[in-house]
Amino acid sequence: MRTIKLTIEYDGTNYSGWQIQPNGLAVQQVIEEALERLLGESVRLRSSGRTDAGVHARGMAAAFTTHRDLPLRAFVEGTNRFLPADIAIIDANEVRAGFKPIGDALAKHYRYTILLSPVRSPLHRFHAWQVKERLDLEAMGAALPAFEGRHDFAAFRASNCVAKTTVRRIDSVTMRQEDGFLFIDVVGEGFLKNMVRVMVGTLVDIGKGRFAPDHIAWLLQNRDRKKAGVTAPACGLCLMKVFYPPDGRDEDESIFQPAAF
């Protein structure tokens, strides 16, 4: 029995999220059906996490087991033949038996994209949050360091989040402006439901002058979701990469470093 790890890129616009669910088409379902057509056997993917409806991925990690003795390139090229244009297998690697895409992950890198423009962009409407108001980027930048470290992120999660603990480790939060866009990169061990989107929404409210930069530290201390900012739209969020230890698996040692632009 072989364990194959896939790196997957997808545009989440037309999907109800990653995970299979009763109502709506999920990315996981589409890939499992493509793998079944390729392999001639039923496959269940175990992923590195979930993405919500409308969220994208450049480096989702998922694994499955198979008896088929195909070359690794066949898992890429063969599966892609059966996938729609908005989903693609980018890479395939054989990993050790018992590999756990969630449990073995060291960190994940998410990127949020904001379009800084008073005029909407038809080309970017599904991949960026348009913010029309001028933002105080200096104030937003001053707020970023408060996120880093191990904190209770109860104020930065969805109301229906069912996580057993709200404590998470954030390794870095960086911000970069380029060609009319603002990119916010967050690297951490794991995330609560909507956590990055609430972080971004709160930063934008700081940029609008609604909160002072030190409000992030206050929220982490007081854990009050109602005092945090808006939940940024799903369309601007993208899972860039999942990091794993370089112990015979396929990742390099660039842990905690955001993926290149």
SSE inventory with pairings:
Layout: E1 2-10, H1 27-39, E2 46-47, E3 56-66, H2 72-80, E4 87-95, E5 107-116, E6 129-131, H3 137-143, E7 149-152, E8 167-178, E9 181-188, H4 195-207, H5 215-222, E10 237-243
Parallel strand pairs: 3-10, 5-6
Antiparallel strand pairs: 1-3, 1-4, 2-3, 5-9, 5-10, 7-8, 8-9
Organism: Oryzomonas rubra
Catalytic activity: uridine(38/39/40) in tRNA = pseudouridine(38/39/40) in tRNA
Pfam families: PseudoU_synth_1
Summarize the structure in short.
By secondary structure, this protein is an alpha+beta fold.
Describe what you observe in this structure.
With 261 residues, the chain is an alpha+beta fold. Helices cover 19% and strands 29% of the residues. The protein is built from 5 helices and 10 strands; from the N terminus they run E-H-E-E-H-E-E-E-H-E-E-E-H-H-E. Strands 1, 2, 3, 4, 5, 6, 7, 8, 9 and 10 form a 10-stranded mixed sheet that branches. Helix 1 (27-39) packs across helix 2. The longest helix has 13 residues, at 27-39. It is globular. The two termini are 37 Å apart. The model is unreliable at 248-253 (pLDDT under 50). One of its GO terms (biological process) is tRNA pseudouridine synthesis. It catalyses: uridine(38/39/40) in tRNA = pseudouridine(38/39/40) in tRNA.
List keywords for this structure.
single chain, 261 residues, alpha+beta, 2 domains, ten-stranded mixed beta sheet, 29% strand, globular, PsdUridine_synth_cat_dom_sf
